[in-house]
Specification:
The protein has about 350 residues and is an alpha+beta fold. The protein contains 12 helices and 9 strands. Helices cover about 40% and strands about 20% of the residues.
Length: about 350
């Protein structure tokens, strides 16, 4: 029995040493040796099962010998495994060397959309004047989108706006002006608000039109508000947005929800008013519509027009971005072309 145990030990150690001399990828072979000699069906286990054939007085001695051989094989296996693991790690580290002198990889980060830049600039200007930025629903009732803004069902102005109706009374808003009605109905006066948001009209897509675009509605309601306040506010806005030398002019116009109404032009910030391709030689660029809030609009929203007056204005966000950043085609704003967006 002793000779057989020694033969098993020497055979196992020889196999372990042969495997440990191979590459680090031979670690699995060491596990196979462990199973062959020390596993449930290994050679040492088979010897222990044959202990019934050993004389009773010899069994403790034989059992101790088997355990000693098992321990010795386990120690040799452990040393060989540790050695091969170190070799595998060294080989991996050698192949994964990092040259710390190489330039770092630049993180690719996104760019703000020109609409976002323009909106943040407009909000900064008006918040600095004491305005509050508010939001209104994009899915709106016909009453708030038209009737409460002095545009009844038979009003000609209603035909001028191609509207997306969901039901007979529910629609996608065509303007952000309905937000002023929601704010007026709250009865918290005075009001100085700015309402940016998406609007929807059934327009054909081209260089200057889109079925979904953005407007910014402004409203001031207080005691003693006059058209002079409107002119002064918008003139300051234009100077802040386009430069200190910017001048403005107001042309009479008509909007159902304001009276009197006007459109505001600014001097061309490209040529300073002398005339160029950008302003089509006129020296002026139309920028927004405005006017004094119609007394009937105040009345329908529960505000006494004898006590309070106000002004409102609306400007297209895309128009500001197109002008400010000299973009020729509105479609570029929605195509998500990184070559375009990374310029901002």
């Amino acid at each position: 029995m002793k000779e057989k145990l020694n033969a098993i030990k020497e055979q196992a150690i020889a196999q372990i040493e042969a495997v440990s001399a191979q590459s680090a990828q031979a670690l699995e072979k060491l596990n196979d040796i462990r199973v062959n000699y020390l596993g449930k069906k290994g050679e040492l286990t088979a010897l222990l099962k044959g202990m019934k054939d050993v004389a009773p007085e010899e069994r403790p001695k034989v059992g101790q010998m088997v355990n000693d051989v098992r321990t010795e094989i386990e120690q040799v296996l452990e040393k060989a495994t540790e050695k091969m693991k170190r070799a595998a790690l060294a080989g991996r580290l050698s192949g994964e060397k990092i040259d710390v002198t190489l330039p770092a990889k630049m993180n690719v980060i996104g760019h703000r959309h020109p609409n976002t830049i323009a909106l943040e600039e407009v909000e900064r200007i008006f918040v600095g004047m004491g305005y509050e930025v508010v939001e209104g629903p994009e899915i709106e009732k016909d009453y708030y989108n038209f009737e409460a803004l002095n545009i009844p069902a038979d009003h000609p102005a209603k035909d001028e706006q191609d509207t997306f109706y969901i039901t007979g009374d529910i629609l996608l808003r065509t303007q952000t002006s309905g937000t002023q009605v929601h704010e007026l109905e709250k009865g918290r006066l005075p009001i100085r608000m700015l309402a940016p948001g998406r609007v929807f009209r059934s327009d054909e897509v081209d260089a200057t039109h889109s079925p979904c675009f953005h407007q910014i509605e402004g409203l001031v309601v207080d005691k003693g508000i006059t058209f002079a306040d409107l002119k002064g506010t918008l003139a300051e806005f234009a100077r802040e947005l386009f430069g200190e030398e910017t001048k403005v002019k107001f042309r009479p116009h008509h909007f159902p929800f304001t009276e009197p109404s006007a459109e505001m032009d600014v001097t061309c910030f490209k040529c300073g008013g002398s005339g160029c391709r950008f302003c089509k030689g006129s020296g002026w660029i139309e920028i927004l519509g405005c006017g004094m809030v119609h007394p009937h609009v105040l009345e329908m929203s529960g505000v006494d027009p004898e006590e309070y007056t106000g002004f409102a204005f609306g400007v297209g966000l895309e128009r500001i971005a197109l002008l400010k950043y000299e973009i020729d085609d509105m479609r570029l704003m929605y195509e998500n072309d990184i070559r375009f967006l990374k310029q901002f």
